[in-house]
Specification:
Blueprint (H helix, E strand, L loop, with lengths): L39 H5 L6 E6 L2 E8 L15 H13 L3 H4 L7 E11 L6 E13 L2 E10 L2 E13 L8
Antiparallel strand pairs: 1-2, 2-4, 3-6, 4-5, 5-6
Length: 173
């Protein structure tokens, strides 16, 4: 027998909606930063230290130092962490441009539907260039390519499909 542990009544259509508020990790950022401290995956990869080198709508170029704690015993990026880098770059690329820095933007949520990663050479310690580019968008779905360059050589290429999930409290979607 199923039990209902908690049930919330739906909000009436005419109820006032709360203003969208960015979480602290995404509030009051300088334009050359993607996030501040307070996001678990971002903090682990030291994303608050990443520098946005170039940004326009649907495009990001980032300089990121690889922290020692994500390296394997050979001094290479452990392959299992690569998808986390790809996911963060892809998510931020979808919103790159004016929307990313707008505190009034009703962001909703982005969910990753699919990710394909090709590894061409090991990513080693040091600083890498991460490039994200939205190559297609239709409705709520975006296709993003992410590339890792080290020493001007392509080391990783990924293709990610993401879908926007509108915030039900925003009144959008």
């Amino acid at each position: 027998m199923a039990r209902v542990l908690h049930q919330t009544a739906p909000m009436p259509d005419d109820a006032p909606r709360p203003e969208p508020v960015l979480p602290p990790a995404f509030s009051d950022l300088p334009p050359n930063r993607l996030m501040g401290p307070g996001h678990a995956a971002g903090d682990f990869l030291r994303a608050p230290e990443w520098e946005v080198v170039e940004e326009r709508e649907g495009f990001l170029r980032i300089s990121a130092a690889i922290p020692d704690h994500v390296l394997n015993p050979k001094g290479e990026l452990f392959g299992g962490f690569t998808p986390t880098y790809v996911d963060l770059v892809s998510l931020f690329t979808v919103r790159a441009g004016g929307e990313r820095l707008s505190p009034s933007s009703s962001r909703g949520w982005l969910t990753t539907l699919n990710m394909r990663i090709d590894y061409y050479e090991p990513v080693t310690a040091g600083t890498i260039e991460l490039v994200g580019e939205r190559v297609h968008q239709r409705g709520l779905t975006s296709l993003v390519t992410a590339r890792f360059h080290q020493h001007r050589t392509l080391a990783v290429h990924a293709l990610t499909t993401l879908r926007a999930v509108p915030d039900p409290l925003s009144g959008a979607g």
